[in-house]
Amino acid sequence: MSKYAFIVIVAIALQACSRAPTTKELAAEALTAMGGADALQGIRTLQMRGGEGTRQRHGQVPRLGDAEPAATISAVVETVDLANGRAALDYTFAIPGFSQHRKEVLTRKGDDLVGLESVDTRPLAVMSPDGLFSWATQNNPAMLLRRNVVSILLAAADAATDEAPENRDLNGVTLKYGRATFPSGEEVGLYFDPATKLLSAYDVTDTETMLGDVPARYTLADYRDAAGVRLPHKVTITKGGQPYADVQFASASVNAADADAVFAIPDAAQADVDRAITEGEYSPVALVKVADGVTLARGYSHHSMIVEFPTFLAVVEAPYTEAQTATLVRELQARFPGKPIRYAAPTHHHYDHIGGIRGLAAAGAKAAIP
Fold this sequence. Notes:
This protein is of the alpha+beta class.
């Protein structure tokens, strides 16, 4: 080899060594730091256990205009079935004067998705997936499928750009920031720690039941080993630039033998599951006549009152969710043919009293907000 050729080879090697890694390369390094792409792709179920934290955008402010008090969430268990597209939340939610142990489960019967909600003070409720409403780390367990670190990083490794990342400060630490466009068209911002090579945070747009499309940031910390992969045990979420939820988990389980039990449909609920699948947007609603011109729309949790006028209907209290609204509209059209829903009148601003108001507006109602 000539002296000139040797110098050229050395120069090329030095240039390659000094070149900053691209965002795609940083994503690949993060996969390696977490245990490798094969290990992450081999995760069928992921269960985070023993979570303790807060939920701050819960819509239960005592007086309109006041700051929302932080609710505590405890004994949080998040179960994500990546192989079958199922997810579940199990936790206790508490604010001063109110506490509930809740389970929200997105599960399947065959190829069809269905929602199960269980609260310690009432029977199991069956509904369509968009009927689920959670006060845990997410607004709905379906969000866990899209926002867990495994799904995000595997997608980012394929979709991240070949551009050089930029330096960005996050909580006093300088991180490498780059972008990825997922096959769905979703734009994701990725923050990598140059010291650990791990994914430290990501920016996305979440679609919330009450907040609508809102910019969200997920910050990850306390990575620990679980069955050969490193997983963040602390997650902090902001939405719209405001604190949303944070949780510190005690442990993680990968491909646990008992994870499938979380998604089991009780035999007694099979008929309700079939109805939810058949009707599409569905949540249990029963119309009960109270007096002439007054009907109670009794849901599994939250109820509405229907006032009948000669040519139209008014709904007092918007249903709990969009699915409950869709069911109520169908029931009212069948019970009161030819009478449109002209007004929707919630008595106060809590999310569980206005959650379905957009669905009533879409059905032609004018919102009468006190």
